[in-house]
Design goal:
By secondary structure, the chain is of the alpha/beta class. The chain has helices at about 5-15, 20-25, 30-45, 50-60, 185-190, 195, 220-235, 270-285, 315-325, 330-335, 385-400, 420-425, 450-465; strands at about 65, 80-85, 90-95, 105-110, 115-125, 130-135, 150-155, 160-165, 175-180, 205-210, 245-250, 255, 260-265, 290-295, 335-340, 345, 370, 405, 430-435, 435, 445-450. Helix 3 crosses helix 13 (about 450-465) and helix 8 crosses helix 13 (about 450-465). The longest helix is centred in the N-terminal third of the chain and has 16 residues, at about 30-45. The chain binds manganese (II) ion (2 copies). The site of one manganese (II) ion has 3 residues, from loops.
Length: about 475
């Protein structure tokens, strides 16, 4: 009799929802996610949007994807991809239904906060050579001082050729850093508000301190650095004018915690969603609807420019892709559903005051579905409709995928956006779904492996679903 449930308990189970952690739901999930996350860590070790595209394209070709050709009438099962300027990528698997019935779209971004070189970066001061930077994306500046950095990017030479640079990742390569003030002399600095304690113009990357052996030269350290770079890459100082170089944390993605249940690494916003989305796209076969997977650039600086999601590259591609079937892209978009796959802030017990515990997301509770983002009275948000939320909920629940909702912090405490608002302007039903992250936008961010794996499962279920949108 003692084990019998009371009337209230039965009613409670029926009427109320109680969040559970993934470990409580299925304890073997961590084990299941480990192998998937090994591939993820490899993906994550590519640190710029260009490096991700360069890494993914050969992977796609191995899996049967062909470069998209305008005018070709692709048939069910065909897989195609298109690269935009080496920084964004569109991947498609053609479904059984005609494209005029709509598509399943997944979008994520592959750019992350970093320190970009200025056009005239190299200077010498007090016997040391530095690169001047302008930070890219929303960072807390102090986190980027006194940590090892690597340099990545491209330099376009006068003859039209391009040199790719990546230095500071391999064991035997040098690292770089921005130096900070010692606490002994930081009395005044420590009294300043955090946003003012360190300035953007102090974010200079230390590049060398040894002189070029010639007394007739005025800036010997600068010349020495430039001569090494010239020897290594064939570049001169004026070539920086036509370059895109940046510094990022040089650490590799690593397992975190005694249980190895988490990953610490740079750029997980939003490569964690990009990888889950990529794997779901690659696995897609024999599905009803055509899947379209997009890797976007420039999300961290507002999605502007021709590689950001506000560019027409996505719409142009769609138009080219569907016109051969006599379809109009606007009709296709109306009938499609889009997952904007981006991370959300996981509740951190060190900072409970910024989170509202009923509506913020937690590590290990599965993919976070965010009805809206934005700030200050839902300003600048794609607010997914009840119907779109219901559409996704039905797919996740029927496939037994645990998920949670997630609002980015308490009302009026801050906020932020995703590319959902850029993509939904195409008259496309869009909802945000992603992985909860600790220390978001810090040089090293933290995710739970089981969450990463469950996002992959969730996107796969969305891509495979045959539900007709109302
Ligand atoms: Mn993001
Ligand atoms: Mn971000």
């Amino acid at each position: 009799m003692e084990n019998e449930k009371s009337k209230g308990q039965i009613l409670e189970e029926k009427l109320l929802s109680k969040p559970k952690s993934l470990g409580e739901i299925e304890n073997t999930l961590l084990e299941q996610s480990r192998e998937f996350c090994e591939g993820y860590k490899e993906f994550l070790s590519h640190k710029t949007e260009r490096e991700i595209v360069d890494y993914v394209v050969p992977m796609l070709e191995k899996k049967g994807y062909k470069e998209f050709r305008h005018g070709t009438e692709y048939v069910a099962g065909d897989k195609v991809y298109m690269v935009n300027r080496g920084k964004t990528l569109i991947m498609v698997t053609v479904g059984r239904r005609g494209i005029s019935e709509g598509a399943r779209i997944g979008v994520s971004h592959i750019d992350s906060p970093r320190l970009d070189f200025k056009p005239n970066p190299l200077f010498e001061s007090m016997g040391m050579a530095y690169f001047k930077t302008h930070y890219y994306g929303g960072i807390k500046k102090y986190q980027w001082f006194a940590i090892p950095l690597s340099l990545h990017g491209v330099v376009c030479l006068k003859d039209g050729s391009t040199v790719k640079i990546s230095i500071g990742e391999k064991e035997d390569e040098p690292r770089f850093c921005v130096t900070d003030l010692l606490p002994h002399l930081a009395q005044n600095q420590m009294k300043k508000p955090m946003a003012e304690a360190l300035e953007g113009e102090q974010m200079n990357i230390l590049a060398g301190c040894w002189t070029y052996p010639d007394d007739k030269v005025s800036e010997k350290v600068k010349l020495n650095v430039m001569s090494i770079m010239h020897e290594k890459y064939g570049i001169t100082e004026s070539d920086f004018l036509s370059a895109e170089l940046c510094a990022v944390p040089s650490c590799k993605p690593m397992d975190l915690g005694f249980d190895g249940s988490m990953i610490i690494g740079y750029g997980q916003d939003d490569r964690v969603c990009a990888y889950s989305n990529l794997m779901a796209e690659i696995d897609t076969k024999d599905q009803e609807y055509t899947t379209i997977t997009v890797f976007a650039d420039k999300e961290e600086t507002g999605s502007d420019g021709n590689t950001g999601m506000r560019s027409t590259f996505f719409r142009d591609f769609l138009e080219d892709f569907v016109s051969v079937y006599g379809a109009e892209s606007r009709h296709v978009l109306q009938k499609s559903v889009c997952l904007s796959c981006d991370v959300n802030a996981a509740v951190d017990p060190a900072f409970p005051e910024v989170f509202e515990m009923n509506n913020c997301s937690f590590l290990n509770r599965g993919p976070v579905v965010s009805k809206y983002t934005g700030s200050r009275g839902k300003y600048s948000t794609n607010d997914a409709s009840a119907e779109t939320m219901g559409f996704l909920r039905r797919i996740l629940d029927e496939n037994k995928i645990p998920w949670q909702v997630g609002e980015l912090g308490k009302v009026d405490i801050g906020g932020g956006g995703t590319i959902a608002s850029e993509i939904s302007v195409h008259n496309l039903d869009t909802v945000d779904m992603g992985v909860p992250v600790l220390s978001m936008h810090a040089p090293m961010e933290v995710v739970s492996k089981a969450d990463v794996y469950m996002l992959y499962k969730a996107i796969s279920a969305f891509y495979a679903s045959a539900y007709v949108k109302d």
